[in-house]
Amino acid sequence: MSSSQYFAEQPAAGHRPGTVHVVLPDMHLALATDAGVFSPGRLDPGTRLLLEAAPPPPAHGDLLDLGTGYGPLALALASRSPGARIWAVDANSRALELCAANAASAGLANVRCVPAPGAGQYSSSLPASYQLIWSNPPIRIGKAALHAMLEAWLGRLAPGAVAYLVVQRNLGSDSLQRWLAAGGWQAARYAARAGYRVLEVRR
């Protein structure tokens, strides 16, 4: 699979269904995966770090998983905060179908899997603000596209809300932290392991 396919709207890869198990102290999720989505063969180590290190999410409100893939972060948020609405956003239609199916299979009715709006747009069907954002952002879309995406979504954090972004160090976590700080965000390293960094971002 080429590195570009997982963030394409319609992946070119042929189907190759699989299953990834997310085993954490508070949950066990069996998630359907497929070729053409991010990390279909295993739970990405950065995603695991975010799941294990981030503080408990708010019990209520609108919570966002930006770049959801087949849904490990979104479903974990939904399991930990059953009273919240979880918005699972991705450009990849195959990933969104998997995320929706995984949420249904897990009985997590508070997950809404929705396509990412086009560049410079924001859908009226999405909340005006979020009480939390989690993201393993698609670094490989390129720096300009990544920065535009983060500016658009981080700007919708509710007052006092926080975002947690996990980024591999050799893919630019430190430069991303500096860019966020230069843009007026409070960006601090919250956790680190095996070359991955979780950044805590606040206005």
Overview of the molecule:
With 203 residues, the chain is of the alpha/beta class. It has one domain (5-202): 3-Layer(aba) Sandwich (Rossmann fold), CATH 3.40.50. Helix content is 26%, strand content 32%. The strands form 2 sheets. It has a 7-stranded mixed β-sheet with strand order 5-4-3-6-7-9-8, with helices on both faces. Strands 1-2 form a two-stranded antiparallel ribbon. It starts with 17 loop residues before the first strand and ends with a strand. 41% of the residues are buried. The model has no long low-confidence stretch (mean pLDDT 93).
Summarize the structure.
The chain is an alpha/beta fold and 203 residues long.
Structure keywords:
203 residues; alpha/beta; 26% helix; single chain; seven-stranded mixed β-sheet; Rossmann fold; two-stranded antiparallel sheet; 5 helices; 32% strand; globular
